[in-house]
Write a structure and sequence with these properties.
globular; disordered N terminus; about 290 residues; 12 strands; alpha/beta; 6 helices; three-stranded mixed β-sheet
């Protein structure tokens, strides 16, 4: 054991000397080089700034256990903070100041596609700089799906019967190579799916998983249709850096956010949309303060 530690320390020292040779020799450079070399030897990346997340929530609209937007804001502020993120959020559309340093906006709010001209301008300015978006369930709904589909890749028309209600959602994972879907195989949850979607055409979405529409009264005539339910979307606005959007169409039943087959995927999707390593939010970090670091 002692011999392995000595070899590791020697490797750190050699790496530090190599790094310091490429920059002026001073105490700051040497200290940074030692930390970087130590991280490299341990197989880790040097620590970066925390992920900044804004949760856009809304007032509760459905029965107990369904569309729990305020509960999501409370619960996932804690889930994400425990994993090292800096989290802000509200029940209103964010102001430009509130998302000035945000890496990714996570949206779980009914009919979020309904925006004023000022809100559209705020969102588009955020996207032009490459800010990320995550959309859950009927966040996709609004009065102008032609417009909103160009923001998140797909949208559904408000007031149209385009949903299954309580039904089995049998996922077929179609992009097993995508990092968001790592380790995932086909499975079924009880939730709600949408059809009669308006899809972005240029660019098009990247489908991660589909589901076959169940034979429910509201889906009459559409049962058996195969519709994307999980996808990513990347687009550049007016020559700016490309932004990323991740969409999970479910979330009608709030308990599914804690499903062990679902939650890791959502955490990877949030990290991916923020352009961080997809596993950046998977691990709970040591707490600060009492007994912490």
């Amino acid at each position: 054991m002692r011999g392995r530690r000595i070899h590791r320390l020697l490797a750190i020292a050699v790496a530090a000397l190599a790094l310091s040779a490429m920059a002026p020799f001073d105490s700051l450079t040497t200290d940074h080089s030692l930390r970087a070399a130590a991280s490299a030897v341990e197989g880790q990346q040097p620590p970066g700034p925390p992920m900044r997340i804004y949760i856009r929530s809304g007032l509760k609209t459905h029965a107990v256990g369904q569309h729990d937007y305020p509960q999501y804001l409370a619960d996932w502020s804690k889930v994400l903070t425990e994993r090292g993120a800096v989290v802000d959020g509200s029940l209103h559309f964010p102001t430009a100041a509130e998302i000035a340093t945000t890496d990714v906006i996570v949206m779980y709010k009914g009919d979020a596609g309904a925006m004023t001209a000022e809100e559209k301008a705020t969102l588009e300015a955020y996207l032009k700089r490459g800010g990320g978006l995550v959309s859950f369930h009927d966040t996709l709904c609004g009065p102008d799906p032609d417009y909103y589909s160009t923001i998140v890749g797909g949208a559904k028309k408000h007031g149209q019967v385009n949903y299954t209600l309580e039904a089995d959602i049998p996922y077929t994972v179609v992009d097993t190579a995508h990092p968001i879907m790592q380790g995932m195989s086909n499975f079924t949850i009880k939730d709600e799916a949408f059809f009669l979607m308006t899809w972005a055409k240029s660019p098009a979405i990247n489908v991660l998983a589909t589901a076959t529409m169940a034979a429910t009264p509201s889906a009459k005539g559409h049962e058996g249709e195969v519709v994307p339910q999980i996808w990513t979307y990347e687009r550049s606005l007016e020559g700016g850096p490309a932004y990323r959007a991740f969409v999970w169409m479910q979330g009608h039943n709030y308990a599914n956010f804690a499903d062990p087959r679902i939650q890791p995927m959502l955490l990877r999707g949030i990290a991916w949309a923020s352009k961080r390593p997809v596993d950046a939010l998977i691990t709970v970090k040591p707490s600060r303060g009492r007994g912490g670091v």
